[in-house]
UniProtKB/TrEMBL annotation:
Coiled coil: none annotated. Catalyzes the reduction of 1-pyrroline-5-carboxylate (PCA) to L-proline. This is Pyrroline-5-carboxylate reductase. Keywords: Amino-acid biosynthesis, Cytoplasm, NADP, Oxidoreductase, Proline biosynthesis. Its main location: cytoplasm. The lineage of its organism: Bacteria, Bacillati, Bacillota, Bacilli, Bacillales. It comes from Allobacillus salarius. InterPro entries: 6-PGluconate_DH-like_C_sf, NAD(P)-bd_dom_sf, P5C_Rdtase_cat_N, P5CR-like_CS, P5CR_dimer, Pyrroline-COOH_reductase. Signal peptide: none annotated. Residues 5-98 form the Pyrroline-5-carboxylate reductase catalytic N-terminal domain. It holds the Pfam family P5CR_dimer. GO terms for cellular component: cytoplasm.
Length: 262
């Protein structure tokens, strides 16, 4: 792909995607450009990734075929206003923020603007991300294919209707954080029982990775996989009972509902 991929903002999510793209070797570092607010970040990004960095968001916008808005949701209005009138002709805007709709973008840039609303997640940094995309009707099939290729450099990709997008942070964008908390809690439990901290993290994270692969790759229902671990009167069913006593499932469902609260 000989297109330029630009990032407005160089924070955690931009770095996860840039790191993943370069790691995959699908794009050359000369095709990636990004902006940052401080000289410190500009220098760090240039050194770490070897990409071209700018302080001027307009410059990034004017040179990008695919333009990611990788700033916090509350910064979107400011940068949108800033780069308005500076987009490269035919470029595609890619949003990554929860709650920013395609209409929010076309209201400012014009009805015919090509927009892909997306929700990635930070495991992209290690090539194990998950991204849901929702392109508007002005993005051609070929362009959608290219956007999918970009995201496939660091994540699995699903295309969904925009109506579904408000539900995606709960299950995908935010959910790695719940898993990190669970891994931390599992390690605490192991340390309490005398296991050294480093080994506790290794064991807990490998259990989560292995369990995730079992669900993803075997197509066996998660309930059945759970049953396979539970020996009658064994250790696991006692753990499951204790989890349910404390509302484990419901606390996850409630947490996911909370992502949609104002
Ligand atoms: N962190 C995550 O797990 C995920 C984040 N997102 C979304 O990605 C977006 C970025 O989030 P993070 O990378 O986590 O935040 P972050 O705070 O790490 O990065 C945002 C960056 O934008 C920079 N910035 C602020 N104002 C700017 C401006 N006017 N011009 C240029 N750069 C500016 C900040 O200095 C910062 O480095 C957000 O909209 C977030 O909702 C989406 C999925 C997952
Ligand atoms: O917390 C946030 O707003 C972002 C969106 C999904 C993950 N992090």
């Amino acid at each position: 792909m000989d297109k330029n991929i630009g990032f407005i903002g160089s924070g955690k999510m931009a770095q996860a995607m840039i790191g993943g793209m370069l790691e995959s070797r699908m794009v050359d570092k000369n095709q990636i450009l990004a902006s940052a607010l401080t000289t410190r970040t500009i220098n760090w990004m240039e050194e770490r990734y070897g990409i071209e960095m700018f302080r001027d968001n307009k410059k990034v916008a004017s040179e990008s075929d695919y333009l990611f808005f990788a700033v916090k949701p509350y910064v979107y209005p400011e940068v949108i206003e800033e780069v308005k009138g500076h987009l490269k002709k035919g470029s595609i805007i890619i949003t990554i923020a929860p709650g920013v709709s395609i209409k929010d973008i076309t209201d400012v840039f014009g009805e015919h603007t090509k927009v892909v609303r997306s929700m990635p997640n930070t495991p992209s940094f290690v090539g194990e991300g998950m991204t849901v995309i929702s392109p508007n009707e002005h993005v051609s099939d070929q362009e959608q294919g290219e956007v999918i290729k970009i995201f496939q450099a660091f994540s699995q990709v699903e295309v969904m209707d925009e109506k579904q997008m408000d539900a995606i942070p709960a299950i995908s964008g935010s959910s790695p954080a719940y898993v990190y908390v669970m891994i931390e809690a599992m390690a605490d439990g192991a340390v309490k029982q005398g296991i050294p901290r480093r080994q506790a993290y290794r064991l807990a994270s490998q259990a989560v990775l292995g369990a995730a692969k079992m669900v993803r790759d075997t197509d066996i229902h998660p309930g059945e996989l759970k049953d396979q671990v539970c020996t009658p009167k064994g250790t696991t069913i006692k753990a499951i009972a204790a989890l349910e006593e404390n509302g484990f499932r419901n606390s996850i469902i409630k947490a996911m509902d909370a992502t949609r609260e104002e």
